[in-house]
Amino acid sequence: MYPGHVKIKHKKHGKRSSSSSSSSSSSSSDDEFKHLPKHERKMRKKMKKQAKKKGKMYPGMGYPGSGGYPSQPMYPQGVVPPPSSGYPGSVPTGYPPQSGTGYPPQPGYPPQGTYPPQPQYPHSGGYPPQQPGYPASQPGYPPSQPAYPTSQPGYPPQSQPGYPPQSGYPQGYPGQYYNPGDQMQRPPYQAQPGYPAQSPNMPPAYSAQPAYPYPNAAPTGYPPQSGYPYPSDYAPQTTATGETYPTSTPTSVPTPAPAQAPPTVLSDSLKHMTIYGGAELFHPTVKPVDPFSAESDAAALRKAMKGFGTDEATIVSILSRRSNKQRQEIALMFKTMYGKDIIDDLKSELSGHLEEVIMALFKPTAYYDAWSINNAISGLGTKESILVEILCTRTNSEIHEIVSNYKQHYGKDLEKDIMSDTSGHFKRLLVSCLQGNRNELTTEQVERVIKEGPGSVVNLDQARDDAQRLYQAGAKKIGTDESTILSVLAIRNYYQMKATFDEYARISGKDIIDSIKSETSGDLETGFKALITCSRNRPEFFANCLHKALSGLGTKDHTLIRVIVSRCEIDLQSIKAAYQHMYGKSLAHAVSSDTSGDYKKLLLGLLGE
């Protein structure tokens, strides 16, 4: 019954007509809302009654006839409305139509349109129909985005055959490693499946990279990464604007550079070889003691020198088993603890050759050599044998340290002092050695000798040429060209010199040492032979020096002390072996026979006995 409708009581036909109309209207209302839940039907009926009372009724229930939203036509059950003009696209395939005719429009809301298509998301078989009892989704809000499916169609199995076995990273981490300093070329950006096109303001993305831990590292040793398909397995990507990005191919993944060898870490043995200019591994008799306490040693030495008498056994035991560096630490700690110089205390308690050995042990190695040279050229006469023993046998770095220590402790230039105390070609030989400029082996050459043998660093053409020059300078001419001999012996590395001497023997038919003996004499002969012997076998040179010191009438204790002290941390064990081989008896036995007391004990301690 609409408001304002006049009921004529005296016309029964009108009453019956009204009643019939009301009954028909009620029946049609029930039919209209019968598909709705009970509470929804009640709500709709109530809304309809309210509209009748106001005297206004529009098709579609709730849209004004004019001045507002245009009326919306009703559609038969099961028919999907056409897409609204306000939204692009259409209902994407794969979404089944919703069951029922939908819910009638709500008052005050714009007509419901279609959902905009979802670009690039794979179809998952559609969404199930909405369960009854939930109110209609409000227009203007896009439908909830579906969660990413657990298994996207088209993705390859998780374990990729193309990835090498890997370890180190936990499984499931993306195989990306980006280092700004990485030299590997990155492939161009590839759109990824399931993601919308990137904004220009977004940072560039990269396709999946092999999980290399460091730039240029070899692709081995890491567990396979799960969940990341190989770039070639992606289908071509199409954005909402219709642009298609090509898929990555195996060629787009950069081929890693060949693995580079790690920086060489020198072992102690290799350092030892490099320092001494060759690939021979010499063995010392004195090594740093571990554990070591300078404080404990300083206290023990103080106790040994305190009171009546001196405990020489304790002094010998400590100092013969400490390296030169540790002895310097003991001297510093002694002065720190007691305010006294340990050298002065030891001098006051000791005497003779024992004192000389102890004083030598507390001098740094380079300073001890400089001190020995200063003694050799000071006073009346010059002890040329000491100059040859030191300057013709030391390495380049050792020569430089000797020159520096001489200047520091004596305030004079060693080269000038040598030139003022020597003459002739012998002077030239010593000045040449003082330059410390021999072509010693580099670290790489030492490694090559170890792996491939001495021939890997020898220039045979140069060896033949040098051998010919030596032959022309000596055996093949009247007189001797000492300068030519010096130019070969003072420059070449020891392996090159050995090859030259072999070629010389082939050309001349005699050993180079024999030629030097016949062509030179005196100190120059001694110097040349020292250079040749050291190039062949340096321990043999020092074994010969010790044999001369221990042979004949009396013992040349200064030479004995100097060689043992200066070589005990370098190659004294090798010298002992050479002595045994050359003279058929042990060096320790020879020393014991020519020395006595604490002096003998200390020397034997330094010999490792």
Question: What can you tell me about this protein's structure?
Answer:
With 609 residues, the protein is mainly α. It contains 23 helices and two strands. The protein has a two-stranded antiparallel sheet. A hairpin with a 5-residue loop joins strand 1 and strand 2 (244-245). Helix 8 packs parallel to helix 20 (557-567), helix 15 (460-473) packs antiparallel against helix 16 (482-489) and helix 19 packs across helix 20 (557-567). It is elongated, with a radius of gyration of 51 Å. The N and C termini lie far apart (131 Å). Residues 1-25, 58-72, 83-102, 112-117, 119-241, 243-254, 258-267 and 270-275 have low confidence and may be disordered.
Query: Which term fits the overall shape?
Result: elongated
Task: Specify the oligomeric state.
Answer: single chain
Mean pLDDT: 73
Which structural class fits the helix and strand makeup? Answer: mainly alpha
Query: What is the percentage of strand-forming residues?
Result: under 5%
Distinct helical segment count: 23
- For the secondary structure, the number of strands is 2
N-C termini distance: 131 Å
Radius of gyration: 51 Å
